[in-house]
């Protein structure tokens, strides 16, 4: 039986591209050399860089960056899916956000990406039963990034949150793969019930700025929710909803609204 070349198992094109871009960034702007070295080039893998970045952002007088780094390192070592989701998120942001010109940018500068990676750490701790520590991570993410995601929520990979200000996602919410949302989105409940009470967002959904999706409802895959809408009822797959309360106003307009990012109600830029 042929032996697998161990070098092939360590190829990471996302990380390699980040490192290449980091070197170029230092050549372009030497004044950020120390920042880029400590955040990227000092590390041997994306996992290590993520653990460092999260720990530095969430550290406070109440919990040191060293302690948080140890927690994050252990999480990335124990659960490879955490960094795999981060890679998918980076590619999604690069593909969908016209302001993102390099893979390097989300890791260094984009609070939506950083907040979701910190959430993923909190979610790992939540699943381990370390709920108070998970709540601490949630608290710091809310304080630092203005993004409040309960550590018990379920969030898929390939997520892009543009601007990421005032995002709220509740405990029993589920967000599928390849979802895009803009700022001030709420995935919340409608009352004081303690069981399954938050929305279930299908794969490939686009959620416009300021939209509120409330209650234990299902948003079908590849649907669009217009900016400012309040969604209180289930939405069928590949539909566009708008209004307060939101109503179906047409088809999604294209097969992948979360990728095209077209929010005009007349369609998705002519795609079929």
What is the succession of H and E elements? HHHHHHHHEEEEEEEEEEEEEEEH
Number of strands: 15
- CATH homologous superfamily label of the largest domain: serine acetyltransferase, domain 1
Radius of gyration over all CA atoms, rounded: 19 Å
CATH topology tier name of the largest domain: serine acetyltransferase, domain 1
Give the overall silhouette: globular
Low-confidence stretches: 1-8, 267-272
What would you note in describing this structure?
- It holds the Pfam family Hexapep.
- Belongs to the transferase hexapeptide repeat family.
- Pathway: Amino-acid biosynthesis; L-cysteine biosynthesis; L-cysteine from L-serine: step 1/2.
- The N terminus and C terminus are likely disordered.
- It contains nine helices and 15 strands.
- It has two domains: 135 residues, serine acetyltransferase, domain 1; 115 residues, 3 Solenoid (UDP N-Acetylglucosamine Acyltransferase, domain 1), CATH 2.160.10.
- The chain has 272 residues and is an alpha/beta fold.
- 40% of the residues lie in helices and 14% in strands.
- Helix 1 runs antiparallel to helix 2.
- The strands form three sheets. It has a six-stranded mixed β-sheet with strand order 3-6-9-12-14-15. Strands 1-4-7-10-13 form a five-stranded parallel β-sheet. Strands 2-5-8-11 form a four-stranded parallel β-sheet, with no helix packed on it.
- The termini are far apart.
- The longest helix is centred in the middle third of the chain and has 17 residues.
């Amino acid at each position: 039986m042929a032996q697998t070349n161990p070098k092939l198992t360590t190829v990471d094109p996302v990380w390699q591209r980040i490192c290449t871009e980091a070197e170029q960034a230092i050549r372009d702007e030497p004044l950020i050399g120390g920042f880029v070295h400590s955040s990227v080039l000092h590390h041997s893998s994306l996992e290590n860089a993520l653990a460092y970045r999260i720990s530095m952002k969430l550290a406070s007088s109440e919990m040191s960056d060293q302690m948080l780094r140890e927690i994050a390192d252990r999480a990335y070592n124990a659960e490879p899916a955490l960094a795999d989701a981060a890679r998918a998120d980076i590619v999604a942001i690069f593909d969908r956000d016209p302001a993102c010109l390099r893979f390097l940018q989300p890791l260094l500068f984009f609070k939506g990406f950083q907040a979701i990676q910190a959430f993923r750490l909190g979610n790992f701790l939540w699943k381990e039963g370390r709920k108070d520590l998970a709540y601490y991570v949630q608290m710091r993410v809310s304080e630092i990034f203005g993004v409040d995601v309960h550590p018990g929520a379920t969030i898929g990979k390939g997520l892009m949150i543009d601007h990421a200000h005032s995002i709220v996602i509740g405990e029993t919410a589920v967000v599928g793969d390849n979802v895009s949302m803009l700022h001030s989105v709420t995935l919340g409940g409608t009352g004081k019930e303690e069981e399954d009470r938050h929305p279930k967002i299908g794969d490939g959904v686009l959620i416009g700025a300021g939209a509120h999706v409330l209650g234990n409802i299902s948003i079908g895959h590849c649907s669009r929710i217009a900016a400012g809408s309040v969604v209180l009822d289930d939405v069928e797959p590949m539909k566009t909803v708008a209004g307060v309360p939101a109503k179906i106003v047409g088809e999604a307009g294209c097969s992948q609204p979360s990728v095209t990012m077209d929010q005009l109600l007349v369609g998705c830029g002519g795609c079929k």
